[in-house]
Amino acid sequence: MEIAASVTLGLLFLISGFASLFLMFKLWGWPDGHQPGMSKAPPHLVRLHDIFKVVFTALYVVMMAVMVPRLWNYQVELPPRSAVHVSLGFLLGVLLLVELAFYRVFRHLQDWVPALATATIGCAVLLLGLSVPSALREYGLARGQVGGGVYSVENRARVARLLPLAEMPADAPIADLTTVDALRHGREILATKCVVCHDLKTVLVQPRAPAGWWRTVERMADKPTFEDPLTERELYDVTAYLIAITGDLQRSARQQREQKLKQQQAIAPVDPAAPAPTYDAAAAQKAFETRCSECHELAEVDKKPPTSAREVKEVIERMVADNGMAAPPGELDLCYAFMVRKYAPTEVDSAPATLGAAVGAEVQAAVAVASAPPVPEDSKPVPADSKPVPTDSKPAAAPPPAAEPDVILDDAPPAAAPAPAAAKPKPAPAKAIDARGLYVKHCAACHDASGKGKPGLKSKGIPDMTDKNWQKKNGKASVARAIKAGIPGTMMKAFAAKMKPEEIDAVAAFVKKLR
Question: How crowded is residue 302: how many other Cβ atoms within 10 Å of its Cβ?
């Protein structure tokens, strides 16, 4: 069934149900509320109530006729939302059947009818509340594209530009996939065949690039099915339609990435040795009072103030990451300097002068620890209980002389002195990969040198990679994939352009050793 038709039937279903319920409340016990049922109510209003009830029942039968075959063909375990949706559908049918039976057949139980009708409408509201928003979301996405809709000339031109990036087979009819008929066909496949394995919300919840949509559709098509599998043309059409309606989703994801980039730039590390700017007390106090009062009263800071320059740095990082405080780096530096002077005055001379310098000092310290050379074996302290090497040990026995030949020929030419064996050139030792140094350089800014994650970024999904459960769930291969390609929708970006494959593999192995 088309998405628009499903939404229309659902709304008519709800309207007819509420109409019959309100009429029942008005007519029940007519005229003074003491009469049983609606026997004394005006006949034309009773007939109107019965008509609404018949329409409500008929629409329920139609919608169940669509849903039950889908359950038969459903090929994966129902997600929780779908399980609740199905349960409400069958419960509504039971309540409706009992209500009609009490209303028409078992009239001595008519006193139960209003309660049953109310419960039936409650189930109908919950049922549509789980399904209609996803359908309206798809409709909104389709209507919200450039040019006024998914089928507009402007949006189809955008799809034509994106389709070559989808990495479809070379023989894919890309030029034909941007026609109105092809996009309509893709929408039909989405509404009728893609929902065999999952509901519509599952399809639309995750934004994807064109190549991501094609890989997803192709992977779904490879699953075994009881029905006819999707044809190649259906795969192409539904991919084109998904690309056509995900413009808003991708813009939203881009806006989130830009916001995260601004946050990262606001707390970017700076060389601690760089000359510190002149401290302006008035400007620093103004920046502190302006920025720190955006989310809470200044008195809240004084109730539990930071006690060191490091804690000041962590507080500001948490405000940027958790509360989304948007301020240029200069203002954050002023806030940092003011708070250090107010809450940690004994560290003014020893602490970094700016927030960027404090972050830079932390990174440099982590890099210094990571790049420290290993302690040579001969420089390690000898344990007190170790036994000294005996000095009277016998010298090593000399190698035995070479055996002489049994027969010496007189006329044999004197044996030439053996030529010294050519020394084989030793291969240059492969340069060891400093996995910890790479980790500190590229990962410690978010994950911390310990792997536990920066405190201010916990709410943004930065995991504790020293946790046993995390280590158990994430193998080395999955860690390497995340480093290489990033994780869409999170702060984890791709590092394939910054590290070689062997470096990525070394960092992944290092992460797996974190404890």
Answer: 10
In single-letter form, the type of residue at position 499 comes to M
pLDDT band at 139 (very low <50, low <70, confident <90, very high): low
State yes or no: pLDDT of 433 exceeds 80. yes
Q: How far is the C-alpha of 293 from the C-alpha of 302, rounded, in Å?
A: 12
CA torsion angle for 273, 277, 279, 284 (degrees, to 10)? -110
Could you read off the pLDDT of 284-297 as tens digits, one per residue?
A: 998 888 777 655 56
Q: How far apart are the first and last CA of the chain?
A: 53
Cα Dmax for the chain: 146
Rounded CA separation 242/246 (Å): 6
Q: What is the mean pLDDT of residues 351-376?
A: 69
CB atoms within 10 A of CB 289: 12
Predicted pLDDT at 142: 65
- Give dist(CA 183, CA 245) in Å, integer: 10
Spatial separation of the C-alpha atoms in residues 154 and 161, rounded to whole Å: 11
Prior bond of 31 cis (ω within 30°): yes
Question: Could you give the 3-state DSSP secondary structure of residue 492?
Answer: coil
**How far, in Å, CA of 41 to CA of 493, rounded?**
69
Give the pair of three-digit tokens for residue 345: 């005055």
- Write the pLDDT tens digit of every residue in 170-221: 888 988 999 999 998 988 888 777 766 666 666 666 667 788 888 888 877 7
Closest by alpha carbon to 203, among 216, 214, 221, 219? Answer: 216
**Could you count the other beta carbons within 10 Å of the beta carbon of residue 361?**
20
Between 512 and 148, name the one with better pLDDT.
Answer: 512
Place of tokens 């806030």: 335
In the three-class reduction of DSSP (H, G, I as helix; E, B as strand; rest coil), residue 27 is classed as helix
Cis bond leading into 413, ω under 30°? Answer: no
- The closest alpha carbon to 457, from 255, 256, 264, 258, belongs to 264
Contact by Cβ (8 Å): 154, 161: no
pLDDT in tens, 211-246: 888 888 887 776 655 566 778 899 999 999 888 887
Residue 42 reports pLDDT greater than 70: yes
Would you say 9 and 35 are in contact if contact means Cβ atoms under 8 Å apart? no
d(CA 16, CA 54): 9
